């Protein structure tokens, strides 16, 4: 995995002023072992960015432990408070239903534990975090496409219109930043797929189309995007955000802005 040391403007507070409340990262979960390792790597990156803070990974499915188990363990260890960070890029079903249910189950057996739940890492309150854009920009620079004249933001996909709109806001922000067209594609649940999006841009005259993987971890969806995009003529496909320094910083800023539930 890539280095996750933070530096420069926007880096998280120093250890002396940090909130030392334990942080529980909640990932979606996948049968692909690479996804779990990406979550663990992000946990290590967040800990490195804010020394002294305990950061524990958890998963809603496929990988143990789940968030309820982790929260119960923190309560049993004597912690009075915890912050839950949904590692999600849209506020769809998992944020609205699964995460609150996991927190509620933990508090049934540990009512003394105060829990704060953050916003997802994607657009919150209609705004796109500059750190998220910086992480996507980093991943694009790593594949060194040598300049592009169009972009595709490839997301996992959702049937929730509001969640798709939040992906569209990220695409619009990227289009403004790079001064090139940026369209959205989805690996599931909604059209178009990455190959269709790339082909449309090329048909409209774009010759160097790059695809930005709007994923937090590798897996079958990202693999499919890579294959489809390259087959359609994309000049580059970026890697998932995983433990990018900007993502670790975004997690900590979500922690700092969280409120009790």
Topology record:
Elements: E1 23-27, H1 33-49, E2 55-59, H2 67-76, E3 81-86, H3 93-109, E4 114-117, H4 130-142, E5 150-155, H5 161-178, E6 182-186, H6 194-203, E7 209-214, H7 220-231, E8 236-237, H8 245-257, E9 259-260
Parallel strand pairs: 1-2, 1-3, 3-4, 5-6, 5-7, 7-8
Antiparallel strand pairs: 4-9
Description of the molecule:
The protein is an alpha/beta fold. 42% of the residues lie in helices and 16% in strands. The chain has a five-stranded mixed beta sheet with strand order 2-1-3-4-9, with helices on both faces. Strands 6-5-7-8 form a four-stranded parallel beta sheet, sandwiched between helices. Helix 1 links the parallel strand 1 and strand 2. Helix 2 runs parallel beside helix 3, helix 4 packs antiparallel against helix 8 and helix 6 runs parallel beside helix 7. The protein starts with 22 loop residues before the first strand and ends with a strand. 49% of the residues are buried. The N terminus is likely disordered.
The chain-level mean pLDDT equals 90
Instruction: Give me the count of strands.
Output: 9
How many helices?
Answer: 8
The chain-level structural class is alpha/beta
What is the H-and-E element order?
Answer: EHEHEHEHEHEHEHEHE
Q: Characterize the overall form.
A: elongated
Distance between the ends: 34 Å
Low-confidence stretches: 1-18
The strands making up the biggest β-sheet line up spatially as: 2-1-3-4-9
In terms of DSSP E residues, the strand content is 15-25%
The biggest sheet, with number of strands, parallel, antiparallel or mixed sense and barrel status, is: 5 strands, mixed
Helix fraction bin: 40-55%
Rg, alpha carbons? 18 Å
């Amino acid at each position: 995995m890539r280095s996750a040391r933070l530096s420069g403007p926007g880096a998280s507070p120093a250890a002396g002023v940090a909130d030392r409340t334990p942080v529980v990262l909640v990932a979606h979960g996948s049968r692909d072992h690479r996804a779990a390792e990406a979550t663990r790597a992000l946990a290590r990156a967040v800990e490195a960015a804010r020394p002294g803070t305990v950061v524990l990974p958890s998963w809603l499915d496929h990988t143990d432990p789940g968030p309820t188990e982790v929260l119960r363990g923190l309560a049993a260890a004597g912690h009075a408070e915890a912050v839950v960070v949904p590692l999600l890029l849209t506020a769809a079903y998992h944020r609205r239903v699964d995460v609150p249910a996991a927190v509620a189950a933990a508090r049934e057996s540990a009512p003394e534990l105060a829990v704060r739940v953050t916003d997802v890492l994607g657009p919150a309150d209609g705004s796109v975090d500059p750190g998220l854009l910086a992480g996507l920009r980093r991943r694009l620079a790593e594949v060194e496409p040598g300049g592009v004249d169009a972009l595709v933001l490839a997301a996992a996909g959702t049937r929730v219109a509001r969640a798709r709109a939040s992906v569209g806001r990220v695409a619009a922000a990227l289009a403004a930043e790079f001064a090139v067209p940026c369209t959205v594609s989805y690996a599931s649940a909604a059209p178009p797929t990455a190959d269709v999006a790339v082909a449309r841009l090329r048909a409209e005259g774009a010759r160097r189309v790059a695809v930005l993987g709007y994923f937090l971890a590798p897996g079958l969806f990202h693999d499919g995007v890579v294959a489809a995009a390259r087959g359609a003529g994309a000049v580059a496909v970026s890697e998932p955000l995983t433990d990018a320094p900007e993502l670790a910083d975004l997690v900590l800023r979500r922690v700092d802005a969280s409120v009790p539930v």
